[in-house]
Amino acid sequence: MIKYWYKQFPQYPPDHLDYWRIRLIEHLLLITSSYFLILSLLNLFYFESYEYALLDGFGLLVTLSIYCHFRKTGQVKTTSWAVTIMVASLIMLFLITAKGYAHSLFWATLIPPFSFFLIGRTWGTVVSSITFTMCALLVYQQIQHAEPVMFTMGSLFNVIEVCIAQILIFRFYEKTRFSAYQKLALRNIEIQKMAETDKLTGLYNRDKLDVILDKLLTTPEVNSTQITPSLSEENKQSSLVVANQYSIDSKSQNNDTFSHLPKSTQQIQYPISVAIIDIDHFKRVNDNHGHLVGDKVLCELAQLLQSQMRSNDLLARWGGEEFVVILPNTTLDDAMELNERLRQFIASNNIQGMELTISLGVAQYELKDTVHSLLDRADKALYEAKSAGRNRVVVA
């Protein structure tokens, strides 16, 4: 029965602006129908107040009529106004009939929450102001014609019913708030990911590379005089593992590989090396096979390079057919050996059915270096590798 009451409108998906307004309309109509039914029975059989029973019965019929119309048409704006006017009118009529006694004024507190949500701030303010003005007039009349206050069962029921309604309304509001913040948080993560990753390859882009490299170069450990020993033979053998860990169609995994890197920057020590990688004769690929094939080459190469990175290495696309590798805790000699193995690995693989090679320029961080000067030295070493015949590694 409950599931039948809440109709799903295809034109209003969960991310639609009116989705939660529809849910509130359905909640209010369900709660209002239940309330009017219960109040009708209580006034009819328990209090024997036929005037209030007739009023509640009329409210029940109006509520069901609005619900049937809304379920048939899905008109959110019209239904929002109908629900607001109906509930506000019936509450005010009840207050006038009860003359504000028996704690009936509590019912007025229900009008602002749903009127603001359904018809907006401006008209919600108007409806709420009219209601509270009427409440003030009723209290003023009570002052003018002072009568002994009687605490009856009607007072108890009014307080209980309004408190339950308030709990249900604000429970709904908290659900909408939590859902909105959750979606906003996910959206912010998506925006951040888009801002720092290369759309084609899924690797970090140049902006993110500069940020991370700057963090690495400004840590106290990096700017100390401590020298980390060269890699042991065992570490050298295991530093490059030829394993295709990532499928070409799953670009997002490249980013997950380095999600821990900003945390690990606090443990990284001097020295740091970087390498700039360039695909040899990539222009021929675009000229002979087209740019779409060229894009596929870049994606597949990115996956092959990524599969050879160590846990703390960072691979990013620098632009065009160029990539940059940050090698923390790696001396220039070790970086030379690692990149030579990387060059041989790429040369031994066919990429999109083509035998391609890469040239690499390697530089090690020096105390006088900035991010720009370090990359500039690696770029000059890459230029030397290209000038010397390509398919080779040159150190700065």
Task: Give an overview of the whole structure.
- With 396 residues, the chain is of the alpha+beta class.
- The protein is 62% helix and 9% strand.
- The chain is built from 14 helices and seven strands.
- A five-stranded mixed β-sheet has the order 2-3-1-6-7, with helices on both faces.
- Residues 225-269 have low confidence and may be disordered.
Task: Provide a short characterization of the protein structure.
The chain is an alpha+beta fold and 396 residues long. The chain contains 14 helices and seven strands. The strands form two sheets. The protein has a five-stranded mixed β-sheet, sandwiched between helices. It has a two-stranded antiparallel sheet with strand order 4-5.
The helix/strand series, from N terminus to C terminus, equals HHHHHHHHHHEHHEEHEEEHE
Q: Measured on Cα atoms, how large is the radius of gyration?
A: 35 Å
> What oligomeric arrangement do these chains adopt?
single chain
- Could you tell me how far the N terminus lies from the C terminus, measured between alpha carbons in angstroms? 75 Å
**DSSP summary: helix tally:** 14
Q: Report the structural category.
A: alpha+beta
- Give the strand content: 5-15%
If strands are numbered along the chain, what order do they take across the biggest sheet? 2-3-1-6-7
Q: Largest sheet at a glance?
A: 5 strands, mixed
User: Helical percent range?
Assistant: 55-70%
The residue ranges in which pLDDT falls below 50 over 5 or more consecutive positions are 225-269
Structure summary, number of beta strands: 7
User: Averaged pLDDT, please?
Assistant: 83
Shape, principal axes of CA atoms: elongated
